[in-house]
Amino acid sequence: MSDPHPATLLDLLNISSLPAQPWKNGGGTTREILCSPKNSDYEHFDWRISLAQVQTSSNFSHFPGIDRHILLIEGDNMQLIHDKHIHVLHPFQPYAFAGEDKMACLLPLGPTLDLNLMLRRGRAQGSLQAWQGRNAPMTLAAGTHFLYAPQGGYQLQADTHRWTLDAEQALTGRTSAPLSLQLQAEHTAAPLVYAYIAPTE
What string of H, E and C letters represents the secondary structure of 60-106? Predict the structure, then answer.
């Protein structure tokens, strides 16, 4: 039976209050936002959403069996060296790669902050995307959702439920049935990041 009030499963989360922890390879710090199963370590999660502070050019941690999605939140660009090819990562343009691939980054314009979605192959699947100044409804499929406004400036509504996303706030949770969500940006440049994880069978 579908949940008669799926919007009640969505809650506000203050990203800035989350603690930092070392990367898997010890080369930087990350803030875990969501993880399943909860409190899993790097070897046992099904999926994970995190923010990584990158201070210097470095190699990425090795994650065999993980499908990775990365999105630049702060910084002008990050140069990804992926299997000897260079991909320039610009703000709010996601890039996907396999966690077992050899990957490094260069920071020609200084430190960056990036958001990561990690999905264990065969146990989780999902997507990562972003918009600027979105003023259009969207339908959330059944599953887990993460809507993040790094700079704030969004009003969201589902049925009688309303939320305001200020800077560094996200709306997170799961729905057991499709949910129509109305988005209203306060200005045309306001970025909104959306990660979706499909329900497991």
Answer: CCCCCCEEEEEEEEECCCEEEEECCEEEEECECCCEEEECCCCEEEE
